[in-house]
Amino acid sequence: MLFGGLLLALGLVLTAPPAARAPPFAAADLIHPSVMGSRTLMEAETPPAEVSVPRARPVDISERIVLLDVLRGFALGGVFVSNFNLWFSGLIFLPPDQIKPMLSDRWNAVAGHVFSFLGFGKFMTIFSCLFGLGFAVQMLRAEERGDSVVPVYARRLGILLAIGLAHLLGLWLGDILTLYALMGFGLFVFRRRSDRALIIWSLILTLAVPLAVNVGERYLPGLFRSKEATEAAEKAATAEYEAIRTAVLAGMKSDSYFTMLRSNAAYVLHDLLSPRVIGLLSLILGKFLLGLYAGRRRLFENVAEHRAFFRRLLIWGLVIGGVTSGGMAAVRYFTINQRLSPTAWWRVAMPTLKEIGFLGLAMAYVAIMTLLFQRPLWRRILSILAPAGRMALTNYLLQSVIGLLTFYGFGLGFVGQWGPARCITVGLGLFAVQVALSHVWLAFFRFGPMEWVWRSLTYGKAQPMLISRHPPAVAGAQASEAKAG
């Protein structure tokens, strides 16, 4: 584990671009010259250039960085397929005696292992980094006009927190928006830190803190209690968790929406009271800081200028992520076949090793998509994902509705019945439909429905929703002046 962490740190150092200020935007970035960087995880727009918040406007379509919309759409699709396969299907809650026959099927076994190696955890890592990157861009833009990023961004986080809580308590127990909003406030603490400090703190929060939590959770109780008392407490905790997991599965199978909500609430409360929530929050903030670093260095503003960086990132990401994820896959295989003990002492480091693999392959995915996007043919292909990325908040919430209606008892009731092969195939098909619908929606509207709500509440006034087919002459004049500048 320590060797993997050192490799990751070395990779980040060696791939880091020089500290000189990034050059102006390149035309290849498909972005209006007056805009710098990305938006938040769910939001493609940045705060307006005006000082007065009430006069703020969302960024025009011509001012968007298409590559970042593509990356957001790519991550969104991977998150959905992962959630569809593990969470919505109920697979993660099934007892081992039900999972084993399902995975005995060759197609399910292959699909499960391949997606676990290539997909699980990697897409959420990209999502988290994009959130931190968006904060960096908003901070830079605020500083350039002499403002503080804190007031507007804090209001945006507060609204996201409200949306997340409604999603968590009223729809799905796997909500991530609530945690993103809470840890987003942590970015204020690091906004003045040096680039080197961001990398160091990111590694500490992503690797060291979760490992310390795991070690403490496993070994600290034994320092204050007898061996018998510790074992009894562990058995009681395991029994409690199994009871909650059984209740969640029963809630998923129930045809009562309120039964589902009660079981969800018990599961969420158990998680919140677990020491592991500290590790989870630390992981999220650590990945935010990687995005903050990338945004402050303006790595995506001129990809051609940073092409060598992305090539190094690709190589190091594949090496670190491939080796670590491969090792984890081998451990999982030998554990399933009862050749390795599931309670061995060294397993306390397994979550940290997983995160190293997640980070490595996530970096490789971002690098390869960024490099491919510089080629005209691939740019046209990958840009298909951009509308889904522009409507990421709407699509994320809609995915919960789709997952519940597909698997839960008050829907089609397929919970516990589909293996990984079918879940992944159907999940990809459903996301393709989301992409198509996003194209249609954005042909007529400037924002997704939830993006419009978020922006309107943030800036204190309803934002224009319909796309103007005949923009005012003054807007055209401003665009001409911007291009001339």
Your description of this structure?
By secondary structure, the chain is an all-alpha fold. The protein has one domain (2-225, 281-484). Helices cover 69% and strands 0% of the residues. The model is unreliable at 1-10, 18-58 and 473-485 (pLDDT under 50).
Q: Helix and strand string, N-terminal first?
A: HHHHHHHHHHHHHHHHHHHH
Radius of gyration equals 23 Å
The major sheet is characterized as: none
Count of beta strands: 0
The proportion of strand residues reads under 5%
Task: Using the alpha-carbon principal axes, give the shape.
Answer: globular
Helix content: 55-70%
CA-CA gap between termini? 51 Å
Structural class: mainly alpha
Mean pLDDT: 83
Low-confidence stretches: 1-10, 18-58, 473-485
The tally of structural domains comes to 1
Count up the helices.
20
Element layout with pairings:
Blueprint: H1 2-15, H2 66-88, H3 96-104, H4 106-118, H5 122-144, H6 150-170, H7 177-184, H8 187-190, H9 195-224, H10 227-253, H11 257-272, H12 276-296, H13 307-336, H14 350-372, H15 376-382, H16 386-390, H17 392-407, H18 420-442, H19 449-459, H20 473-484
Helix pairs in contact: 1-13, 2-5, 2-17, 2-18, 4-13, 4-18, 5-12, 5-14, 6-7, 6-19, 7-12, 9-12, 9-14, 10-11, 13-14
